[in-house]
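Posting for a labmate who doesn't have an account.
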Amino acid sequence: MDTSPLLQAEQASTGQSVENKKIVDLPLNGRDFVQLVALTPGATTAGTTYETQSSNVLINGQRSTKTTSTIDGVMNVDQLFQGFPISPSVDVIEEFRVQSGNFSADQGMGPSNVSVRLKSGTNSLHGTAYEFLRNNDMDARNFFQPAVSPLKRNQFGGSAGGPIRRDKLFWFAGYEGTRQNSGNDYSITVPSAAQRQGDFSGLPPITDPLTGKPFLYNVIPQDRINQVAAFFMPFLPLPSSGTQYIYSPPSTVQADQTSGRVDYYLNNSNRLFGGYTFNQRTLFEPDPGPKNGGLIRRGRSQRANINWNKTISPTVMNTLSLGWSRFKNVMTPSIGGTNYTVQSGLQGFDETSARFPGFPSIFINNYQGIDGFDWDPLINPTDNRQVLDDFSIIHGGHQIRVGTDLRRFMWSSQSATVGRGDISYSGDYTGDGWADFLLGYPIYAFRQYPQSNYNQLTFNYAFYGQDDWRVTPNLTVNLGLRYEYDTWPVDTRNQLTIFYPAAGKFVVAHKHGQLPDLAAQPLAALAWNLFGNLMTTAESVNLPNRTLRFPDKNNWAPRLGLAYRPPFLKNTVFRMGYGVFYELMNGNNYSNITATSIPWIISQGVSNTLPVPTLDNQHLFAPFSAPGAATPSIQPIIYNPRSRVPYVQEWNVAIQRQLGRSTSLEVAYVGNKGTKLETNVPFNRPLPGPGDVDPRRPFPNLTEGYEVANIASSIYHSLQVKLEKQYSNGLSLITSYTLAKSIDDTSSDYGSGYQDEYNLRLERAVSNFDYRQRLSVGYIYDLPFGKGKRLSPANPALQYIVSGWEASGIVTLQSGAPFTITSGRDVANTGSGPQRPDRIASGRLDHPTIDKWLDTSAFVLNAPYTWGNSGRNILYTDGLQVWDASLLRNFSIREGMRLQLRGEFFNVLNHPDFGTPVRNFSSGNFGKVFGTRNAPRIGQVALKFIF
């Protein structure tokens, strides 16, 4: 039974609490409780984080990287890559709450928080044991696949808790294991057998870049096919259906997790509890190319906490919490040891690929290339330590809390970087990306020297005061103020560099009065000798010598809320609130100014010339020790030394009405505005125009780089409606509806395809996650049949058969996501990546199909040396319609002991929600859809023992 109050009459915040019955009884794909966050108005989940493999949580138009999480009050966030590194088994969770706006000042470092409370032991022994089983016999095939993908999954475990000493000392623990072998549904565009031989007969004409004339008969002569193309061709498959190669390779998952908690009631004034959680996961993800192996991910997460609650007097209490968490992420290509990069004949990678040999990354416009798994092997351990103290006092109508939240975050890394190289073939020379590849004319090439270990350290200091003032029995005012100070990271050996445009040099960190520690990386001394004219020390340009950035100490976060329960409107509450919330910075963005700049790492790129190439695969980079090594440009990465910490202003107005004893209806307006948000902006990109690219750059001796900039902004407005029925009379229900609009100039901490670095307003559009409408319904219903129910057959046998049944499910209806059309060509001649064509009509179709999702005639190639006028995120994908359903039967064994048999189907109606169409204007498949956003119907059965 849910015992939380229906009416929220003392806080102005918005959010949702989910108690244990919903957590364990609702159908959850993978038994991941985070999916239940999507039952909160304004919230949704979208995919998983790349590194932690946890569900992305998007709340109220904010990026998923800015949603924080706590377990028993201690932070559960990987500050390097974001995401929730620990997802406890649902059988050890007592309750979780989504705080989605204007919560009190004791919470911060993000605009939304998912807090989890683990189960405690009691005076009686209680627990569970279970196994959930899946295989493809219960599944449907993917819409685009010829057969059902193979699947076998076993998820098993149990939990138990009880007394160590009655009324004093209790324990609770749980374990869960997962073993999975499943097929992946890939459909990739590959060249035909004729195209592999250079024969483009029947296809649009291709041009010889050396003569400017079409190839005779549209065929590339055999003696013109470059040796690199010939070498890699056997690694690329032939089409199996039209232009597509359909492939379902197996992936494997082996995961184990365990949690434990001990509670100790010393006396009436002191309570201690502590917990430990351990997660370990090994995942193999196959590449869409059958001969490219795949990626092995190994993740290990741990957390521990100790909490001491001290009751000083009936009105005074103090809570001290100590927390620690550690996450280690290791990613390794499954195929390595052979230096395909050097063997192919690609020039300039002998030194950079020697330590971690393997495939290069080859990008072929409109075709599947080869994934070289840039940066892998990658090893990233992180360590987070936290001290929290909360002192509270009740005085009259005031409940006052003051406290502090102190965190130390440390991470390190070592990786292959882009040592095996990135080579891009755009089609700008011949009109076709594959033809450019065959001729060996890349539009761009990039290399980096591998990275040895570096370590960074940062501190987060927060102090707060909160007064929940009950002015009258019907009016409560929430007043709070929080101060946060986040130090900029320092490296243990000062391996930090930024490009400083004011000086025109790379500024290198160092100890006071000393030169940089050039022994920190293998190539640093050589880089200092090669590019010393491009570098200077921090002190010489009056920047902080270790951080290279001045501290931002102006981070005050006020909170103001009001909850009013009018005496003339019984069971009705009016709430409103406003608050400022500072965000944790993306640790990986921090790392970019360490991991990719000289002298610690040499990052070099080279752009080919247009319209006639002057570089080919055999003439890209000179050896580092050669006289010409400094000719290919160094990549600059800049960071404003006076950057501010990103922040969000949130506001809400809500009306909540209780309907009967167990039901409430809430209608709210929720809005927010993000300021100084993180993004990566192109830097050193020339203006559109004719001629070679590099000489036209603002800094001609450097290639295109980027600025890690806190300059983005966002705005979000929404109508949110929630109908909730707490579990009573056999029924529990949460229905949430959101009508919203989210606008920003980028939806990612890393930026999203800026065209013109001198006019960033061109990127202002609806967010990537602008899901305009969303309806979610979660229900649990004890069927009214059997003994003690409304419909009870007189026949004992029939009564036994129909007793104990429960139906539950989650229904989700959601609008489509916006997407952007790209031209696939460097029409502006800036050496840059994504560009957009001209738009001459809306591009929308009233009745889109998978063969024509958009009006392709609405887009034309823009004039040479111009940016296209087509905007960002102008069209929408298919919406989402998913019904996950469960039916279970409880068999009573004896009092307090039962056996539960359940069957669950995810996407039970097998409704395909189509994914993003091919957005590349230059592709022959432009506007076609080749995948789905959701999985086909998946079924599983389970047996669970509950005592």
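Reply:
Got it, the structure tokens are right above this. The radius of gyration is 30 Å.
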